[in-house]
Design a protein that fits this description.
about 675 residues; nine-stranded mixed sheet
Length: about 675
């Protein structure tokens, strides 16, 4: 038995899998004051409901948005930055680029380290790695004592060109360890040994800023699992779709920045066709990710705390490998309101789990997307979370009526439909931009929808996009937790070594890759992984360009094979060839992975005997208004069954809405497919 656990902004999801498939799922409200408490409570409930004993559990895989939330909410350690003399203001100067050229009131996120805690250290290493000015160790020693006296908990060290020669960073860390052994210290040459000063400094600071918080949480999680009787330490989902041990995640917490959303993307990739659009809508946010050639797209540039959610450059950059997805602040708990112009807007703020939507009956009074879906009849107030939570329909109507319907002069039902469709359009617009920027046409891709709120909105989003079909996979409401169980133990490594391709020999390249592959094999060996595979990647560009693209490095004639692969990748992205200039490599990467788990995400024993029709209830559709709608039990439908709309198909953790003119077919292990 293996169990995946995903902590979200509103719910903590759980999914148990054995050799036959998914045997149990669960959802509990997230406990924001102690996130690990929800994990413990959820596992205890799952054990009781499914008849599982702790001794049955071989592995727990966990994903969380703890790091993201800590950075956004500024809840990390009091941190200082040591930079090369003259470069302490790189966090504030950023790229000297206005992401919105004509906005006179442009906003930027505050640096995690204020200026009075950023220090110029006398030292200088040149671009070729040679020492121009030696490290002033006496200065570092004096500074270390001063930082302790000022109550500093963590230090980021980011010296110029440390990715080429890390000697000064390492020596500075040794000096600090001698005079201030209680300080947490992060080196840019270990966290992100890559070119680009601002991104490297920002990432290193972010890593050490959340390190104490993350380690305390992970150790608390370990204690609670042991208290339940679960043997063995949990594994943690990384943002790039791999797994790591608790020790590795505690050392590099920045690598679990997007660990929660990554699970759904890799689950969709394991279930669906080679090319698809994965759409995950939970209680707080919605995520969209392209799956190409059977794998999620991966990027090495990510931003946290964007001031404008769709504008690159408006957030804190973090240079780590993450599954390439776009995240927007609309989910089941997103709050609807009337803005200063008298228009209906939804999100990005969310009611979360405390107090939650008005219909939760936990003190919430603001109208949310879940309240709107309940008013429209899409949710059964007596079968939410399989009956574990009863929803208050009257409270939902009151919240929408007083805050939205009355100010707009419309009925409660019209206001609820406005909230529902506004969210669908927002997500469709974001998906369209995300796909087109990556050279894909969303109208040609099937959409796999999951998360607690995803199947309710999936068809509406797909219709707005022009997508041909929507698939709700098995256990769609907890698919991110299930996806954790399909990921291998993996870690990636990078080296910046800029050079023209024609100036490099194959021996030089192989030596560079071999160094990183040895690191990967050693790291995974500590986790008991004997069989390790390595994937080689080069980040390349035409000489003179400012940014690079990722190109797989295959065996073959050197350097023709690499240049041909670069040209092919470039044409696929931009639909044209580049300029007639030389090609250069900026970074070299290795992804080291253990074996991929042999896991089936089918619903074990999914079909139950009995009539699939549960009855009817009034539900709203744009053609016909409120109509009697047949409700089906997902677990009593068999492969090949067809359901014509209007209809609703319910499973314990999610609800699929099939509108008029659409039909749903049960595709066996692949889930429910709605042709729109």
């Amino acid at each position: 038995m293996r169990i995946g656990v995903d902590i979200g902004g509103t719910f903590t999801d759980l999914c148990a899998v054995d050799g036959t498939g998914i045997v149990a799922v669960g959802k509990v409200l997230t406990t924001h004051d102690e996130p690990a408490r929800a994990v413990e409570e959820g596992l205890a409930a799952l054990f009781a409901d499914a008849g599982i004993t702790a001794s049955d559990v071989e592995q727990v895989v966990h994903g969380t948005t703890l790091v993201t939330n800590a950075l956004i909410e500024r809840k990390g350690s009091r941190t200082a930055l040591l930079a090369t003399a003259g470069f302490r203001d790189v966090l504030e100067m950023r790229r000297e680029h206005r992401y919105e050229l004509y906005d006179l009131l442009i906003e930027l996120p505050e640096p995690l380290v204020p200026r009075h805690l950023r220090f110029d250290v006398p030292e200088r290493i040149l671009a070729d790695g040679s020492v121009h000015i030696g490290l002033d160790e006496a200065y570092v020693e004096k500074l270390g004592r001063e930082l302790v006296a000022r109550g500093i908990d963590a230090v980021a060290i980011c010296f110029l060109h440390a990715f080429t020669n890390p000697a000064h960073e390492r020596r500075a860390a040794e000096v600090l360890a001698d005079v201030a052994p209680g300080l947490r210290v992060a080196l840019s040459s270990e966290v992100v040994p890559e070119i680009r000063e601002f991104e490297r400094a920002s990432t290193t600071v972010a890593n050490v800023y959340v390190q104490d918080l993350t380690e305390r949480y992970l150790r608390d999680l370990e204690r609670r699992l042991r208290r339940l009787g679960v043997a063995g330490a949990p594994h943690i989902m990384l943002s790039n779709g791999g797994l790591a041990t608790v020790d590795t995640a505690a050392r590099y917490p920045i690598r679990i920045l997007e660990s929660g959303p990554a699970g759904g993307a890799i689950a969709a990739a394991s279930i669906g066709p080679a090319d698809l659009l994965a759409f995950d809508m939970g209680g707080t946010t919605a995520k969209l990710c392209l799956i190409a050639d059977g794998a999620p797209l991966v990027t090495h540039q990510f931003e946290v705390d964007r001031k404008y959610r769709l504008l690159p450059g408006s957030g804190l950059p973090v240079q780590v490998s993450v599954i390439d997805m776009i995240e927007i602040g609309v989910g089941g708990g997103s709050i609807a309101r009337i803005d200063a112009l008298g228009l209906l807007t939804v999100g990005p703020d969310s009611a979360g789990s405390e107090p939650g939507p008005a219909c939760y009956g936990r003190g919430g009074t603001e109208p949310t997307v879940t309240d709107a879906d309940l008013v429209l009849g899409y949710l059964d107030p007596g079968y939410f979370l399989g009956g574990a939570m009863t929803l208050d329909a009257a409270a939902a109507r009151e919240a929408i009526g007083s805050r939205i319907a009355e100010p707009l002069g419309v009925s409660v039902e019209e206001a609820a439909w406005g909230i529902h469709t506004s969210v669908n359009e927002d997500m469709a617009n974001a998906a369209r931009v995300h796909a087109v920027e990556r050279g894909q046409d969303p109208a040609k891709l099937p959409m796999y929808t999951f998360g607690g709120a995803g199947p309710v909105h999936g068809v509406g989003v797909a219709r707005a996009l022009g997508a041909p079909s929507v698939v709700a996979p098995p256990a769609a409401g907890v698919l991110s937790a299930a996806g954790f169980l399909t990921a291998p133990l993996a870690f990636d490594f990078v080296r910046s070594a800029r050079a023209a391709v024609l100036d490099l020999s194959r021996e030089q390249v192989d030596a560079l890759f071999a160094e990183m592959e040895a690191e990967g094999a050693a790291l995974l060996a500590k986790s008991g992984v004997d069989s390790v595979t390595h994937r080689r990647i080069a980040e390349m560009r035409y000489a003179g360009q400012g940014y690079e693209i990722r190109v797989p490095v295959h065996d073959g004639s050197w350097p023709d094979t690499l240049i041909d692969e670069f040209t092919r990748t470039y044409r696929a992205l931009y639909r044209r060839s580049g300029p007639d200039v030389g090609v250069e490599v900026l970074n070299w990467r290795v992804v080291s992975s253990g074996p991929v788990p042999d896991v089936s995400l089918r619903l074990a024993g999914s079909t139950s005997p009995g009539e699939a029709r549960k009855g009817t209830r009034k539900a709203y559709f744009p053609v016909g208004g409120f109509v009697d709608t047949v409700v089906f039990d997902r677990y009593r439908l068999e492969a090949g069954d067809r359901v014509d709309g209007p209809a609703i198909v319910e499973e314990r953790e999610s609800t699929v809405v099939v509108p008029s003119g659409a039909h749903c077919v049960v595709r066996g292990d692949a889930g429910l497919e709605v042709t729109v």
